[in-house]
Amino acid sequence: MTEQPSRRLLLVHAHPDDESINNGATMARYAAEGAQVTLVTCTLGERGEVIPPELRHLTGAALGRHRLGELTAAMRALGVGDVRLLGGPGRYADSGMMGLPDNGDPGCFWQADVDEAAALLVGVIREVRPQVLVTYDDNGGYGHPDHIQAHRVAMRAAELAAEEGCPVDRVYWNRVPRSAGERAFARLHDDLPGLPFAEAATLDDVPGVVADERITARITADGTPYAAAKAAAMRAHATQITVAEPYFVLSNELAQPLFTTEYYELAGAAAPAAAPLTDLFAGIAETVA
Ligand SMILES: [Zn+2]
Question: Which of 44, 58, 83, 196 could form a Cys-Cys staple with 63, CB 3.0–4.6 A?
């Protein structure tokens, strides 16, 4: 039996690009430190809007295939070798934005049976034995059906895995503390005239913003190779993201900060942390799976 790294991190995301935007610096850091980093992406994001005009002919399955290629390139930029599509590529279709008729398609992730999808994820947990699982909060960060479903599936999988004797020690949700968000947008407004973007988003457009005291952990990568790796990974998702560091736009073309510090809230924490941890694994006994 081959021995696994002693620290193992599992991230569960809805679409290709979510991992780089939310956790790119964290993934790059732990991969470089020799931890096992496993990404499970639930859909191929084939209903995403495409930014570059020359790629707008890509829709549906063709866009899904293209985005899988972007995801592979992004993982290369982050130094992460283990990426899987939940149930295999195409098992779950992108559900589209909340309220669209696509949400009702029988094959879409929003219509998936949570226990069935969670069982597929438990298979990964059983194999990888992660101590730490990262996903979204119960609103999926911002209400996209696939993000909400990714949360439900990840939380249910953690529950089922614990029941069968391979518990995950810690589940974190992706967050942005309000004060850091406000500072970043103030700087964005100052910088906007010099940027290749015409308009700015607002803090309300950023997923997962919460009061500062709810932050349990923070991974700071400012000025490190991990910040550069994150930007490179985001650039690899060229159909979805245009980067001009330290800012980027999605298909709405509204500039937003590219956070090189990534923030986490411990799911189910009874009380806020005295001070945010700077290591997602702090205090967890390192075990060989
Ligand atoms: Zn997404």
Answer: 58
